[in-house]
Fold these 2 entries.
Entry 1:
Amino acid sequence: MTDLRITGVQVIDLRFPTSRESIGSDAVNKDPDYSAAYCILETNHGLRGFGLTFTCGHGNELCCDAIRYLARYVKDRTLSSITDDLAAFSRQLTGDTQFRWLGPEKGVIHLATAALINAVWDLYSRAENKPLWQLLAEMEPERIASVIDFHYINDALTRDEAIALLKERRAGQEDRLEHLRANGLLAYTTSVGWIGFSDEKISRLCDEALAAGWTHFKLKVGGDPADDRRRARMVREKIGPSHRLMMDANQKWDVEEAILRTRELQQFDPWWMEEPTSPDDVLGHARIRREVPGVRIATGEHCQNRILFKQFMQAHAIDVCQIDSCRLAGVNENIAVILLAAKFGIPVCPHAGGVGLCEYVQHLAAFDYLRVSASLENRVVEFVDHLHEHFVDPVRIRRGHYLLPEQPGYSIEIYPETLRDYSYPDGRIWRS
Ligand SMILES: [Mg+2]
């Protein structure tokens, strides 16, 4: 399909009224309506590419507007003219001279960039008739490195180092693939512990998750200290000492408060403390990590680009790297961060949930294991059990593991009825 040409880009503002049941609620985001700025690449062959970026409500329309503007970089182009040099394509979007002032490479315009770049990768995988993880896993090291924009990170990771690492880690790839096909990717559940849930509901959800085979659980903290302790004690007692309990403060605390509160919660043996403070505070994270030894520090879902991830790693500020499939500028920049993490020896545990993030990150985690880290140690992928029914190729979970996706693409196509009913503000759900 060398003449496959992108003829149009549809952009849809999709929102789900999750705030009505406190789904997704945490110490900072009290009433999120899980939303997707969604785009569809139309082509001259009937094949379509799908992409989205995730937000929590009203900001979604800003992302939709930004996608409409950036769509000029894909419209009327052949797919091959983009995929021949994917790093150049990424730089075109992030370097637009009329738009770059809003970032650079952060915020609304970066989220919008992610939707389009991911849509191109979805279309590319479909044209190759492979799930995205497989398309990536079968690439030559030089080809993988060619999709990365090394600008601003080559003081920490050069192209040659990336290629050497990819070559070295190739050994054993077939065995790892066999393992993934048989076992899937280890996941953890965040669905049990939203901050807006009652104790009874958390207790019941823990029972259900244990019965379904989950071994890793996450609790939202950052509320009233006594409430946090009570909830942490309850979940720890429910799941027992051998299962893993992660805690997530969603950026609630100042640095010194984070140190005190994390120490206080240490008695419940958290496997990590996530987003203890501002996602931009590299040195603050480093201090928290130094002053609360024994609790691993995690962040990344709001880490705006590869440059900031580089700094977190250079400053020894994190133990767990939580890439986000559409906070970073799509597949390309995620590959850059996965390689940076491998160089610094930091496990990647992707952020997921929201809408479509689980569908996305399973591909990135599989690629990481197959081609980059070659390890499962301390690696676990977030799972949240909401809104999967809207996807044509939803995640499949078995006993707390993601099963490898099998259909071509990036698993992000949403059913037409959902696009109709949940579009904002005219869809059926929002008119009622
Ligand atoms: Mg989080």
Entry 2:
Amino acid sequence: MRQDLTIKSKPASPKPSIVRCASCDGFGWFEDDFGGESAYCDWCAGVGYVYHRDGRDSAIPKADYEAVAEELEGLEQKRLRELGYQGAAKKPWQQQIRKDTQLGRNPYADGDT
Ligand SMILES: [Zn+2]
């Protein structure tokens, strides 16, 4: 039986999910605590996020940046919120380190922020 190889291709993998880079934890780079130099993370090519597909992580190719930009933006905002960063100077109650102290309470919050 003859097979037409031109149309027989591996089924496309499902869209990979995007996960935080395990190596740099989403930062995309490392800072040298001593020299003050920073270096891009090799694992994610400085993006801070990687594709997670079939149980493996791989760097997001540059060609895909545009397609995933929105998703990355969402992930990044989520990450920064986790860090207590909202794009402005941190209020004391937004700083993770103060979370369980008196200063960690938002005096303006109505309870759910
Ligand atoms: Zn990384």
